[in-house]
Amino acid sequence: MTEISRLSSLDSFFLYHERKEWPLHIGLVSIFDGEIALEEVIRLIASRIDYVPRYRQRLIAESFNLAHPQWEFDPGFDVRNHIFEERLEPLDNEAGSEEGLSALAGRLLGEMLDRTKPLWDLRVVQGLTGGRTAFITRVHHCLVDGVAGVDLMKILFDLTRESTAAAPQQFNQPDKAETDPGQRVFEAVIGGLEEVVERAIDLQHGLLTMLKGLLDPQSRGAMLALGGEIPPLLTPVSLLPFNGPLSGERRFIWLRLPFAEARAMRSALHGSVNDVVLTVIGRAVSRYAVLHGQPITGRRVRVMAPVNLRQEDHRGKLGNAISLLPVEIPLDAGDPVGLFHQINRQTTIMKAGHMAEAINLLLSMYGTIPAPLQSAFGALMSTPIPPFNLIATNVPGPQIPLYAAGRRLVATYPYVPIAYAIGFGVAVMSYDQGLFIGLGADARAMPDVAIMRQLIVESFAELRQAALGNDCSYAT
């Protein structure tokens, strides 16, 4: 009997809460230094897709949602149904510009993936200036998180220009046993119970871990310090200009910052690159609020920062293994270095006090709710006041160049999905000594996202000047 593989409660969350106004796939715009023909990409993917069998599988929903959907090999799978070619059209008389690529990416990222097929696709974009080629990749969040996405890059890309793509291998698809409807319902009921039991075990294990932490004086002190960070998080967020109803139409723009400078600031201020990113975002959002005539005195922006909980022995596996840190950033901070230290203190306390693990306990508790109720809750949930103002994810990528079909990957801009009244998201990936930042926004909630790009550049320069002055030694 073939083992049934189902979505976890966390994976299913992204499926149940998806709407046409907020497609929940992650994305990536990758730019290469030469022309790559469509057939080259098809041959490359076809030769390696067996390393990630999940990309051949589609989701099958159970009757009455008695259990979370299960993965099943798509009997009609053809890689050509997932890889398409696009050619940039002239935009403002600048054919082949990155502005045209940005407009195309925004349109595609606003469209839902076809749930009757494996939940991914890739556009090979021709017509960029300089003979470059771009990939626009979409993968549903129920299939992969940011860290697993980076692991996937390592499989699909090469470390040298010499491509190792081979002739497509014949895939031996497992035989699909015929199951009568009664047996299917029985398996769904059992599967639903298994998920509830597994999440209950996770909950129990997490509680025991936290109780053991309370017995350790150092951990107990960190948890007590964490208690001081909790009260502000229990209050509703203060709505910012980009917090409002979403249209489903997306804008996606990007920028690149020097990774060496971010690391130099991290070292000079004794923090992390993530602290640098959050400080820059906080300052940029403050400026954006002022431009929109909103007061900033006494106000904060609450940022949802996903945290990787993937164990080292689970690297390379798909699915989601994330929790989150809710970071409160004051908008009225005048000193960028002082703001950096405030954010560093807050994130340090949260990490030492196991905030992400505590929130993961809540996710495990949510997982003990039967699948039919989770599905109904996702379909009916609507909130005009979101739990966060924006999403900001920072995923470390490889610091060496990667190649596809012999062409070097020169830029890679990640996209994080946005939902409910969270109309703006920031995704950061470090790659090949660059800090690549993707800014995703809803066209209705934040039509002027281009302004935010400039504000981020200004805020980065401000922090660099305050932290490093005229020191240029980091550039060597």
Order of neighbouring strands in the sheet with most strands? 5-6-7-2-13-12
The tally of beta strands, per DSSP, is 15
Task: Quote the CATH topology of the domain at 200-396 and 438-475.
Answer: Chloramphenicol Acetyltransferase
Determine the N-to-C terminus distance.
Answer: 59 Å
CATH architectural grouping of the domain at 200-396 and 438-475: 2-Layer Sandwich
Estimate the global geometry from the Cα principal axes: globular
Q: Secondary-structure element sequence?
A: EHEHEEEHEEHHHHEHHEEHHHEEEEEH
* CATH class value of the domain at 200-396 and 438-475: Alpha Beta
SS field, number of helical segments: 13
Low-confidence stretches: 312-316
Structural class: alpha+beta
Global Rg: 23 Å
